[in-house]
Amino acid sequence: MERESFEDEEVAAILNAHFVAVKVDREERPDVDHIYMSVCQALTGSGGWPLTVVLAPDRRPFFAGTYFPKRSKWGRPGLVELLENIANAWAKDRGKLVAQAGEIAGILSETAAPAPQEAAFSDLLAAGYRQLADAFDPQYGGFDAAPKFPTPHNLLFLLRYWHLTGAAHALAMADKTLAAMSAGGIRDHLGGGFARYSTDDRWLVPHFEKMLYDNALLCHAYLEAYQCTGNPAHAGVAEEILAYVKRDLTSEDGAFLSAEDADSEGVEGKFYVWSRDEILALLGDDGDLFAACYGVTAGGNFEHANILNLIGRDLDAAAARRGLARADLDARLAACRQKLFTVREQRAHPFKDDKILTAWNGLMIAACAKAARVLGKPAYAAAAERACRFILDKMVRADGRLLARYRDGEAAIPAYLEDYAFLLWGLLELFETGQDPDLLAAADRLAAAMLRLFGDDREGGFYYYGSDGEQLITRPKELYDGALPSGNSAAAFGLLRLARITGSDAYAAAAEKTLAAFSGQVARQPRAYTFYLCALAGLLAAPRHIVLAGRHDDPELAAMRSEAGRRFAPETIVLLAPDGREQPAAAIPLLAGKPAVAGRATAYICENFACRRPINSLDEFRRALGEKAPPPPQPTPR
Fold first, then answer.
1. What is the DSSP string of 317-352?
2. Whole-model pTM?
């Protein structure tokens, strides 16, 4: 508010014309702060800082609130409009104004009615949710009939809708779909990762091709479902995806490769399927147990062979029938899977598409960085950093232009909107995990270039290819969130996140203008634009920031970071003040004025545009966060 309004000449002119402006240091005058904070809480039902109060000359308050943007937005009244209205009312009938403070507050709230597109935006979220609910398969999860595609951004939206509205069915649909997919043959139960789609409605028979982008987005979905439900199985599936990508889709230089084919030796799925005789011969005494649990039969479930799956199997009941503890059953099955995986590795592998694509790497960088934060495993962040460094070192031209593809030592093709937008997502996730200011600077440069090369200043939104690219017969704007989120949806998503970190009004305005530009199109079929709806949910949610200050080696600070990272809070930005020192308001204004208190790890929670008092206790920090955090994940037996 200081940057937006109190250092602004237009605001200053209004204040100086009609008011005596007084700025109070609440730490120097806690008495003043306490009195007027009580007024604010009585008038508004809440409080916090910054605290804004308007007083009569006798210092009796007739208006109080917390944060006001310069102009009305986010459903909050703007300070300019507020001051002008108060000055006019004071000039006309100051006695009535002082006597009827509550009525004045109501009048002022009318001037802050949400902009028309914001009301339409809220309708879009609800309509998208209803359409997904209408198409949901309650038996096997997913949406519509076969073939079934994972479409992870459907699930990312449902989790955000649940978080924003409390709609339990939204969470249930996402949870059911993820559990059903992880039981099905679309998941590689031996090597990790997911195939492209299922040819049937049970997720049993996949098209066996594995794509980097599917696995990156599914990793996001399983991590967020773990945050929301606390179900360790979801965390385990995410870790299996990451293990698969590290083993089979990572180059020697650390970048991520594109895909693996469905075929090997000219036969689709040959690498993945088993006969019952093979299983029994390889597993010995545990063969029958494994076959019963993983649906292996003499006749097979796919062209006389077997796709391993857990569909319809109750492993608790299976353990009880054999007099086993569930943990013992899990350990035996894990040993069986490892034996079969070792044998399978000797087979002829499917062909690997070793292209390195900037866009898909951006998605996987984001997934790895998020996993490091959610699961508390720095090795995942290291993998994200290696891939990020590869892109920035080898896929950027000398003039700074990002390129789209790398193979056999050659980087080529000016990058498209999705390359910029997905890499921006990856950079921001990696920054939030490691808090490296160089990554934030790289994200800022990337976002600025994206606006310059692809942005439509007149109508809003972004073109598919850059202004410096080959000019085709048309220059489209893509919005449909199909197998991948669209570049426009991802651009709005990333710009909004970057704006929340840096405080950039320009990035926030570009994100909102993009969402507004396509709102009419989305209204016709919202479920076709679920990553757009993810970005929109971020716009509509009141932002929250958590600033953590303390020595970098303080275990209490590390514990606070872990607590914040494990929770599902997509509206929250977590920032770190290095070494607990007071920070200048440079790239991240929110760090200014938030040092460690008394040399101890300190948390500042700022929400609804107001900051609470500093917190020095891990237990108090947990309580202040409110949401229940999932338990730290246990190692997944392999």
1. HHHHHTT--HHHHHHHHHHHHHHHHHHHTTSPPPPE
2. 0.83
